[in-house]
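Quick log. Single chain, no ligands specified.
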Amino acid sequence: MASVTLQNLVKNYGDAKRPLLAVKGINLEIRDREFMVFVGPSGCGKSTTLRMIAGLEDISSGHVLIEGRKMNDVLPKDRDIAMVFQNYALYPHMSVYDNMAFALKLRHFPAADIRQRVLSTAATLGIEEEQLKRLPRTLSGGQRQRVALGRAIVRSPKVFLFDEPLSNLDAKARVSMRAEIAKLHDRLQATMIYVTHDQVEAMTMGERICVMNEGEIVQVDEPMAIYNHPVNMFVAGFIGSPPMNFIHGHIATVEGRARFVEDNEDMDALRFDIGERLSLRTEAWRDRPVVLGIRPEDIYDHRRCTASQPSSGQYARVEISEPMGSETYLYLNTGAHPLVARMASNDRYQTNEQVHLRMDLAKAHFFDPESGLAI
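-> predicted structure:
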């Protein structure tokens, strides 16, 4: 297997006078045998970056290195990579067996070796021998994606590339295939680069996550490090479902204690002490605008809040209650701003019901409202 290095990588779809930059000079080191996930909204440049690694997209400037070797001018077929696409990209007139064997036949592998590789890979992926004789159109979406995975695996490439491979599957099949791909990585010990716009996929699959926005890398780290320590409001709002709540205000000193005061001139503002730990962290931001971020799971019903949870109170009206089975999402209105909270599944809420909320401020985040950077 191999490491992958991106050096000042740029993709420009415009020209010198009117540049249209899809990727803006990114730098990244993907370690040997690592499972790296590129995640971000549509149009952020993640798939374009993947296609430049594969050689399917020309590089405007910068370099792609695989195992230390510069790949800019190397043809895709000579890069020793395998790519799994969103739409499976199977040959419709070929059987499953022939689809999986095709790349090996092009490289003139012995027939016995091809058969051994295909059968072994099929068994690993749960593709039954009877299915090897069928055409792709007779298979379900999940089965076709297994064939696409198998076609990549039989080649034993240095690097596997995945371009949103699960987006066409139903919810149950997505969960199943997520687990299958994760197990494959453990079994193959391969370098894998996976592109998705689904932050749940990113959090559950990646050893590290590369969060992209507007053609740039915003943050690279392990999933929980990004979740617990987002570098800015974009990452904080993108990673996590439902997304983080943001409340604009400022930090004031009241009776010698640091207090967050919501910006709200028309009605009673939300005010609460932020505690010693956060007070020390935000010392330089006294009497300056800040944005408080609080995740839905750190908002509680007052009736369920324990005395050990450092918290502030807030009343809100229920607009929508979404039972999710193991939990309930509450979409709330405080009169000044909306909030989303995750409550226990055994609690029942009615539309327009008033709820007394508590916020666990020990887990609050603060951001600069101008730059969006974490404080």
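The mean pLDDT is 89.
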